[in-house]
Amino acid sequence: MQTVIGLEIHAQLQTETKLFCGCSADYFGKEPNSNTCPVCLGMPGTLPVINKRAVDYGLRAALALNCEIPERSKFDRKNYFYPDLPKGYQISQFDEPLAVNGYLKLNGEKIRIRRVHLEEDAGKLIHQSGGTSSVDLNRVGVPLIEIVTEPDLNSPKDARDFMEKLRQILRYVEVCSGDMEKGSLRCDANISLSDNEEMGTKTEVKNMNSFRAVESALRFEENRQKETLESGGKIDQVTLGWDADAEEARPMRSKEEAHDYRYFPEPDLVPLVIDEDWKERIEENLPELPREKERRWKKEYDLPDYDVGVLTEDKEIAGYFEQAVDEYDSPKEISNWIMSELFRVLKLPETELSDVEPGDFAYLVELVGEGEINDNTAKDVLERAFTESKSPKEIVEEEGLKRISDEGALTEKIEAVIEENPDAVEDFRSGNEKVLGYLIGQLMSKTEGQADPNKAREILKEKL
Ligand SMILES: [Zn+2]
User: Fold this and answer.
1) What distance in angstroms lies between residue 41's CA and the mean position of ligand 1's atoms?
2) CATH number for the domain including 412?
3) What is the model's pTM?
4) Is 9 helix (H, G, I), strand (E, B) or coil?
5) Number of domain units in the chain
6) What is the extent of the structural domain holding 436?
7) What digits encode the pLDDT tens for the residues 376-392?
């Protein structure tokens, strides 16, 4: 039996203001209903004015997803009544969307994107105990793009991978924060099973608020459909809501009660005309996308595919790596230090990437590479650089953490060790070479681990 999945994704655009009014689009955490105006509240007599930046962002996303941009698109009213929608309709795009026919490659396969269109977000209902509900309209009118895929995904895991890849791209082109927990990126899925060329009856799964939820919810529904079909049952066309705590998808409403949206053109907005100049301007300003970066890095840095995948995942980390390599041209060492130590330190409370400049990070990795400082000291310095807002160089220099490889200084310490350990020295002289390790250990504790062990061994042998 073949699983067929298509996704409908809503991504909030990170513009300053809402799609059709001057209210802030950054509504999260604000006092309920404080972030509104007559336009987004749908007062009679008000008119929407399109936010050009939102169109630009929609185009950035669409072009990064390899879409065609028709010269003309238009806005439509999608009519339905719901308490979180004060106008009684949502301004969306119906038969002439902003962009069509795109794709995103997943494991070498093209997952087709049917369309990308602009629309405004609705408000939020807050259900309280005792059967009452409140409404918060701060989110009403925040710009969204809806991205609709063709049913090209064949497993819950692929659906999750697709969402992760999509988020990566939306973040690279800086149009969406991609925060699923806060609802900045949301996903609904259609899923059906079939054992022949015919498509089976599909169901819709909603309320998946994390990548893990996308995979678990779809796996749950895939299994349910499989069991139903295998026992001779029939799949009903239903909408299911994912309950992440119960790990269960439950029916929300049946398709018979589905809305008839009575779409018609939005009379208060002229059609959107995207000419070649506009398109080119957006295209020229697109940053290097993850796939292009990966290809270039493999050539330039001679890194394993795994490293390239991890480091290009996040645009900021990718930039940090490139700047660090500019300072210390040893990509693999830099990569190792980012993937192990930098990622570890960034998980500590109140640390962020901007705490330590990439050049300063590179300086520390270089000290290790050249044997001037040992691994453990460097790890400690890095952590302190992030938590104490000092540069690694300051810490190393102020505290004299570089290895002692200066012969004079080492010899002095070694002579002291020899004097303090007459028994061990006697043992060595009578042929017990193993004692050398013990004496080196004594030297290390005397120098707090900073003696260059190879050089120390040489001098010690000579002295003995
Ligand atoms: Zn407003």
Assistant:
1) 7
2) 1.10.10.410
3) 0.80
4) strand
5) 3
6) 407-463
7) 889 999 999 999 888 99
